[in-house]
């Protein structure tokens, strides 16, 4: 068997290895990247506009609401999205799978909603938790109809839907803020936009055509608890990972001020949004990876994992370097003077973007290979490190301490995930060391700049 450890030689062979992808991969990667680029631009516009239009307390409330929505997206389907994409990619059945997924999603969404009302949230008023829950459970990432399109490798349609939805939502929110509306109105408009997107998607001819062309089910539709049982370890890992990504906001909600939340939130949003290319590469690779895992083709799995990680590493190295150089200019041009320290926070965060993007790819690999509990364990270890550094770190400025905590924890998660795949011989040692060297170079550059 050809293992991950000797699959790649010189760097040029790694690059050429990506040419083995079929046309559907490049088509999907193009549309997903294009949609993500537009989404990035609109998201940045929204973040900047609201920072300039809202009082800092209202902006901090928006950052807190967005963090809760991100966590709620993961909690509302408990990992069923991974199972669903894999199922739709390998099965012709549609209606039975969608029905079971909807019932499972109803249960997990209800659990999330109940849990949120018990959580201690200082920045966001309790009266706004209901619209936040409705937004979270209707986001695109947790929409079963979009899972169907992704599983059938129609990422062009999925990308178009998300682009139009995001443009419409950003337009509504910015217009409302421009006319003096507060966080309550913004959240209601966001919720309405989500509901309309779900309805319009269900009526599209391409979506209805997938039902018309539905093939016979290979077996009886899965039961709700069968789906939950298979997706629970995946969902727990996704939930923990998303909680980890937003932990800085939640801890600053308890430890810091509205200004701390606003500054860290603005910087982290910019950094996280810049990972769109790495995410697109991973998502576009997943259907092929799922098929290789189902076929038991270990050589193909290794090839896909290594070429995907290589592409993500090179891409995010370039993105992170550019961001570190441009951070002061970005904050000077786009944000009020009260956000000026956000440039330093952004520079500290960017080395973590590279390993975070690679971690996203490794996570999908572990999920595809059904190594889900180990995946969850790596994230829980990262959460513990984040909390420890945030509580006892020597950095006095809380937004910078949150950035430092995130980067260290991301690196720890990377080392754990990579160790698992190295042991499974699905990740090349040379590629692992290359990624580690790229992170180290970025971190050294960050120390130099700061």
Detailed description of the structure:
The chain has 450 residues and is an all-alpha fold. The chain contains 18 helices and no strands. Helix 14 (298-334) runs parallel beside helix 18. Residues 1-20 have low confidence and may be disordered.
Tell me the structural class.
mainly alpha
- Could you tell me how far the N terminus lies from the C terminus, measured between alpha carbons in angstroms? 47 Å
Shape, principal axes of CA atoms? globular
What percent strand? under 5%
In round numbers, the mean pLDDT is 83
Number of helices: 18
Point out poorly predicted stretches: 1-20
Please describe the biggest sheet, giving its number of strands, its sense, and whether it closes into a barrel.
none
- Binned, the helix content reads over 70%
What Rg do the Cα atoms give?
21 Å
Number of β-strand runs: 0
**Secondary-structure element series:** HHHHHHHHHHHHHHHHHH
């Amino acid at each position: 068997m050809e293992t991950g450890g000797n699959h790649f030689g010189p760097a040029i062979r790694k690059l050429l290895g990506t040419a083995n992808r079929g046309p559907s991969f490049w088509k999907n990667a193009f549309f997903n990247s294009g949609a993500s680029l537009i989404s990035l631009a609109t998201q940045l516009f929204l973040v900047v506009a609201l920072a300039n239009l809202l009082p800092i307390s209202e902006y901090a409330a928006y950052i807190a609401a967005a963090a809760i929505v991100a966590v709620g997206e993961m909690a509302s389907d408990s990992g069923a999205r991974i199972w669903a994409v894999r199922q739709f990619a390998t099965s012709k059945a549609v209606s039975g799978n969608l029905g079971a997924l909807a019932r499972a999603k109803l249960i997990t969404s209800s659990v999330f909603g109940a849990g949120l009302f018990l959580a201690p949230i200082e920045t966001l008023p309790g009266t706004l938790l209901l619209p936040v829950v409705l937004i979270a459970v209707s986001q695109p990432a947790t929409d079963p109809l979009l899972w169907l399109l992704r599983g059938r490798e129609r990422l062009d349609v999925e990308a178009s839907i998300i682009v139009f939805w995001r443009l419409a939502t950003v337009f509504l929110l910015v217009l409302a803020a421009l006319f003096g509306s507060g966080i309550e109105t913004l959240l209601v408009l966001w919720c309405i936009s989500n509901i309309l997107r779900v309805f319009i998607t269900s009526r599209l001819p391409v979506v209805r055509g997938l039902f018309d062309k539905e093939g016979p089910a290979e077996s009886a539709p899965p039961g709700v608890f069968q789906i939950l049982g298979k997706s629970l370890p995946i969902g727990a890992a996704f939930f923990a990972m998303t909680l980890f990504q937003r932990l800085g906001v939640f801890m600053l909600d308890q430890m810091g001020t509205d200004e701390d939340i606003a500054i860290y939130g603005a910087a982290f949003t910019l950094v996280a949004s810049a990972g769109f290319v790495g995410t697109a590469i991973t998502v576009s690779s997943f259907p092929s990876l799922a098929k290789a895992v189902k076929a038991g083709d270990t050589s193909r799995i290794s090839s896909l994992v290594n070429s995907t990680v290589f592409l993500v590493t090179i891409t995010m190295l370039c993105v992170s370097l550019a961001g570190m150089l441009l951070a002061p200019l970005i904050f000077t041009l786009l944000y009020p003077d009260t956000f000026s320290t956000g440039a330093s926070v952004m520079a500290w965060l960017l080395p973590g973007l590279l390993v975070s993007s690679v971690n996203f790819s490794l996570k999908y690999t572990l999920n595809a290979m059904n190594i889900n509990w180990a995946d969850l364990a790596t994230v829980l270890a990262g959460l513990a490190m984040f909390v420890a550094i945030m509580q006892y770190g020597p950095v006095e400025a809380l937004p910078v301490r949150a950035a430092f905590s995130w980067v260290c924890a991301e690196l720890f998660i990377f080392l754990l995930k990579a160790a698992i795949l190295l042991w499974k011989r699905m990740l090349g040692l040379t590629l692992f060391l290359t990624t580690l060297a790229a992170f180290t170079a970025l971190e050294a550059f960050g120390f130099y700049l700061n």
